[in-house]
Amino acid sequence: MGNTAVVVGGGIGGLAAAIGLRRIGWEVTVVERASVLDDTGAGISLAANGLRALDELGVGAAVREAARGQYSGGTRTPGGRWLARMDGAALERAVGTPIMGIPRSTLHRLLREALPAEALLIGSQAGPVQQLGAGTVRVGCGDTVLDADLVVAADGIGSKIRSLCFPTHPGPVYSGSTVLRAITEQALELRTDFELTWGHGAEFGHIAFNDGRAEWHAVLNLPAGTRFADPLAELHRRFRSWHNPIPDLLNATAREAVLHHDVNELRTPLPSYVVGRIALLGDAAHAMTPNLGQGACQALEDAVTLAAALAAGPDVEAALARYDAERRPRSQAIARAARHAGWMGQQLSLPLAVTLRNTAMRMTPARAATRMILRHHAWIPPRLA
User: Fold this and answer.
1) How many domains are there within the chain?
2) How many CA atoms lie within 13 A of 149 on its CB side?
3) Angle, to 10 degrees, between the axis of helix 48-57 and the axis of helix 366-377?
């Protein structure tokens, strides 16, 4: 079995895949079109399944040291009433770790540092991918041509490689929600590690970090492509009557720090994550809405599972078939669950529906809520040699 791979895409999933392949003895080149290899996203929550994947990749300890455990918080109404409380200690007892919050840029840096500089081809646009036969896949990168035994498509929700592999697939679609987010400029005295607040067709949440700063996000039901001349002023207007610390978080944010992206997803599942010697991974394979906080965790699961399958052999084709069989059912089920969570959570706007949802949440026992979380978090990674 050959042992050279090209990973197209230098995001969290692509870097994790490269680390995993190197850990099993493969030669890997990561091709990233951006001239600076970084992640400009705001913050991320890592559940037990993602953290276990990072452990298997050898970077879990560093990530835990840089992250903050989410022990307190929960879900509230705009007036501040609690709908559900978070019990991070109970979750830790059940799966060995609380959910942990970390800036995306920090996670990205820790993954980059686990790879040698020569493995990263930065500022290079991956061109056509050709399967040449005899187990060789060719990737054009400007004047450079890379031949490999495997190509990992980690090129995100707008994946060109996915379009090449599945030309009749409809591709990503708009979920109905748009998200604005940022990291505060200064530290705040927050009483909780993590919160979500649900209104009518709107959500505001925060993740507290180790250094006292926090990531916040605001999700709104709006037509695709909606943008504001002054996003921060618009959020002050929309959330001015919502409970603290929402106004404090907005006040602690620089205007230029606000990011605004529409939430898109692969609503039509792919029939396979593998075509020949091309393996799709992360958002290229199963882009999902963020309502369960599982997007990055699923990409990390992909990376470890792919590396373990290739390590077990007996050949690339058999390993990729096993990767597809293991990853597609779970990741697509979680994508469906995330979509449904959005429909029943942030996207609800009719007053009666919101009232019924809030009543159901207040009546749900904490143990039942923890069991629901464990369905997604209680994943054990395969071992990497």
Assistant:
1) 1
2) 14
3) 30
